[in-house]
Amino acid sequence: MPSMPFGAPRSMLSSILSPTPSSATAGAPFGVLEWSHSRQYLYETCNRALYYSTELARGGWRRDATDDARAAYRLKSLTSLPLVVGTALHARAAELAKAIRASDPLPTLVAMRERTRHTLNHVWSSSQRRRAEWTLQPKQVPMLREHYYGLVPSADQLARTKDRVERALISLNGLALWGEIGALDPDNIALIDKLESYLLPPRDGDVGGSVRVWAAPDLVVRYGDGGQIVVIDFKSGPVASGSALKRHIAQVASYAVQLRVTGVLAEGEECRGLLVYLHDGTELPFTVTSDDIDAAAARIREGALAMSLARTMADHAAMDAVNEARAADTPEADLPVIVERARRESPGYAMTPDRTKCRDCPFREVCERHQDPAVGSVPIDVAA
Ligand code: SF4
Question: What pTM was computed for the model?
Answer without folding.
Answer: 0.84
